[in-house]
C-alpha cells in the first residue's frame, strides 16, 4: 500500500519536472560565478534516472 502511495507521489512530483527546470535560477546552469562554464547537468538524463521509480527493480531492497 505504501509503495503505491509513494509511486503516485513521485509521479506527481516528476510531472512538474519541466516547469521546475525552467524556473531554476540561471546561475544554476553554470559551474562558475562568471557563468562561462556550463554545468554538466543533463535534465533529461536526470529525469530518466528519477523515473526509475516506475519500474519494479527500483523497489527491490537487494539486487
Describe the structure concisely for a colleague:
The chain has 63 residues and is mostly helical. The chain has one domain.
What low-confidence regions span 5 or more consecutive residues with pLDDT below 50? Answer: none
First CA to last CA: what distance? 22 Å
The major sheet is characterized as: none
Query: Care to count the β-strands?
Result: 0
Sheet/helix structural class: mainly alpha
Number of domains: 1
Helix-strand string? HHH
Entry keywords:
63 residues, mainly alpha, 0% strand
Walkthrough of the structure:
The longest helix is centred in the first third of the chain and has 14 residues, at 2-15. The mean pLDDT is 91. With 63 residues, the protein is mainly alpha-helical. The chain has one domain. The chain is 44% helix and 0% strand.
Q: Secondary-structure map with pairings?
A:
Elements lengths: L1 H14 L1 H6 L20 H8 L13
Amino acid at each position: 500500500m505504501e509503495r503505491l502511495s509513494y509511486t503516485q507521489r513521485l509521479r506527481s512530483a516528476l510531472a512538474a519536472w519541466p516547469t521546475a527546470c525552467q524556473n531554476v535560477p540561471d546561475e544554476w546552469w553554470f559551474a562558475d560565478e562568471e557563468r562561462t562554464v556550463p554545468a554538466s547537468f543533463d535534465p533529461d538524463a536526470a529525469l530518466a534516472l528519477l523515473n526509475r521509480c516506475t519500474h519494479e527493480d527500483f523497489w527491490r531492497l537487494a539486487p
